[in-house]
Amino acid sequence: MRFRQNAWVLILILFSANTIFAQSINWERLDIGLHLANIASPKKSDLGDSKITVLKINPEHYDFKLLCASEYGGKSRTVSKWAQDHQLVAAINAGMFQEDMLSSVGYMRNFDHLNNSHVTPHNTFFAFNPVDTTSKPVQIIDKTCQNFDSLRTRYHSVFQNIRMISCEGKNVWTQQNNRWSMSILAMDAADNVLFIFTRSPYSVHDFINILMKLPLGITNAMYMEGGTKATLYISADDVQMAKIGAFDNSIVDTTPSSAGWAIPNVLGIVKKR
Hints:
The structure is a single chain. With 273 residues, this protein is an alpha+beta fold. It has helices at residues 2-22, 79-85, 148-151, 204-213, and strands spanning 28-31, 34-40, 51-57, 62-68, 90-93, 108-110, 113-116, 124-130, 138-142, 155-163, 180-188, 193-202, 218-226, 231-236, 239-244, 265-271. It is built from 4 helices and 16 strands. Strands 1, 2, 3, 6, 7, 8, 9, 10, 11, 12 and 13 form an 11-stranded antiparallel β-sheet that branches. The protein starts with a helix and ends with a strand.
């Protein structure tokens, strides 16, 4: 009897702890369909503040824009400059880029502009600007369990990068010793898009596990960028911030410069009219 009582007490404690943790995300409403959270990571990094910034975007209220230097004068810009030039509410890396400082590492198309026609072995694609109303406003396509060749014809804008979570909800990234800041693009079970950033360095494998444990309801996620080129910019309501990444041997606790690296491709949002 005592064993059963102790077991029930343990279950109640665990349930209460999970409930408290689930309620610990404090979403700040910036506007309709736009919420911001700065979350203390359950796994602490030994550098920085171990905070994870998440911007939750409802596609019913925001349009997504792919901005490429190859389409706009051949000139890379800081994320802040991209946002200011195109009146973006928020912006994040649109994936990694090649040494020419223009081309995406994977497939990238924006309406009639083709930045990179080559489809790499990477498994995920962010698709938006649908051709008609029969398609979802946005989606992350996983070519291991979806027909990418068919789906990409239904969207005007598509770009490719590295998958983080499988269709079965598993971490697909091999553990590595290297750690760095990261910018991540994800979607949740309610079809919200999440712009995610950590300046504190983690291995990608560990950071995926962290995201999957948080009560964010993430269904799939794409790696956007790491290290000093990882960026996130937000300018909404009274909140204006530029998050700039670092490698684990260069990070400091002080706020980084809002300038950051010039990057060729960004994903931004604008409020629907």
